[in-house]
Amino acid sequence: MVFKLRLVVILLAMITTVSLYSQKKENILVPEVPYDSTANYLGADPAQYTGQELWLKRMPEIQREMGYGNFILNYKKVADINDSKNVYKCCDGYNSMYYELQNKHFLVEQVFKEKIKDKEEYFLKLKELSDGDIVYYHYDPESVYSFPFAVMGYIEKQKELLKGKEFVFSDAVLLNAVDMETLDPIKPVVGQKWVYEDVTVDNYHFEVSLIAKNSNGTKIAVPLADVYNETLPRKVYTWKEANDMQQKFGIYNYKRILQQKIASNMNKESLRLSWGEPLEVIKKGNTEEWVYTSGSVVFNGNSIAKIN
Q: Which of 6, 10, 65, 202 could form a cystine bridge with 209, CB 3.0-4.6 A?
């Protein structure tokens, strides 16, 4: 009788274990294609993070007292935001302690979803690489700004793509740039050539950035978000693009474009490069008035007739 009772208990335990495992397996997200390292934030397709190494970026000093959010020990208790016992390396406020986690590296062991209070939530199961801790990160598939990591595969890919490249930066970059050694503002020179030095998480923007160097040896950091942003007016040009632009519009207008200023002899194309697309175009006969937040420009044909 005792033997039969023990057997029943063992069988029930096995059934329960198999049931739990099956449910967990159903929730695990398997990447349909391997991670190609061309994006740091994957939005609604986080499965590709599986097997990737993540570098937890540092924060600006003003944010550090709030710590890192979304690192938890039990993902099923994620809805209880006031449970400090469920916070990994508790606590700065109700978040993980900044100085305990900054610059840590994690391996993504699994990506899965779990229904919490009738809503599907996404989690990354992480292994902290220096001490082996297992922790869960509550992932937001709709907010790139909430993702605190740099994917090491992405950094390495960008190094391959940008190595040996030469750049010209607009004043929108240079007037906000600092010397990476001293953190002092640099003295901008319009049209100056900058060459690739590295790709890393820099200590000024705290973002994955291009580290570029000029002929004087000064190094600055330019976030890759700016390097790849094609929205006009652009902040970053390759050296070839800059030379082509100088040949097409002349040295004066070329520099005005980089300064995001206008000149009376600009045409529609050069104005777009300098100020971007207008908010509104008002057509009156043969003229067009291009309206911007900082003023308006009236064209007669392809020539500027008036600057307001």
A: 202
Partners of residue 232 on adjacent β-strands: none
Tell me the torsion sign for CA atoms 254, 255, 256, 257: positive
- CA distances 76 to 4, 72, 116, Å, are 35, 10, 7
Hey, what amino acid is at 129?
A: L
Rounded CA-CA distance 141/129 in Å is 24
CA distance 154 to 208: 9
What pLDDT score does 82 carry? 84
> Can you say how many angstroms the Cα of residue 80 is from the centroid of all Cα atoms in its chain?
28
- The residues of the chain scoring below 70 in pLDDT are 1-26
Task: Indicate the pTM of the whole model.
Answer: 0.88
Under a CB-based contact definition with an 8 Å cutoff, are residues 257 and 245 in contact?
yes
Rounded distance between C-alpha atoms, residue 26 and residue 71, angstroms = 23
